[in-house]
Amino acid sequence: MQEYLPFFTALAGAAIGGTISILVQIINQRHQIKIIQLQQKTDFAAEETARYFLSHRIHIERSFETIRKSIGGFEEDELRKILVRAGAIRSYREDGSEWWKLLSRMDEYLEKKLDRT
Fold it and tell me: Helix 5-54 and helix 76-85: axis angle, to 10°?
């Protein structure tokens, strides 16, 4: 029995070490999942907010500057991606300013534009 003692000691050490390693991996994965869920929640809320601003009954389109000031916490390119995911399209005015409108409101935009001419 004495000759097997080092074998059982090594086996017990490996089992304990493996269990600890598995538990640490599970904790890390749960933490990563929470981070991803929080990021997606933030992006989803930003898309909903962008859709809300662009759905205003009077203002069919909004300048990028107005949207950027209203939806803070995002880099400009990241905010543009959020606007695209929200269903918005970009256009530029003659002065070079950037404007966004929902693609779903394009008919309404064109009607309003025809009424002005």
Answer: 80
* Integer Cα distance of 61 and 100 in angstroms: 5
What are the backbone dihedrals phi and psi of residue 102, each rounded to the nearest 5 degrees, phi first? -75, 135
The CATH number of the structural domain formed by 2-116 is 1.10.10.10
- DSSP class per residue in 4-32: GHHHHHHHHHHHHHHHHHHHHHHHHHHHH
CB atoms within 10 A of CB 17: 10
Per-residue pLDDT of 78-102, as tens digits, reads: 999 999 999 999 999 999 999 999 9
Tell me the whole-structure pTM to 2 decimals.
Answer: 0.61
Cα→Cα distances 109→58, 68, 100, 114, Å: 11, 22, 11, 9
The residue behind tokens 């530029």 is 92
CA 63 – CA 79 distance, rounded (Å):
13
Residue 92 near residue 99 (C-beta atoms within 8 A): yes
Encoded tokens for 45 = 């809320």
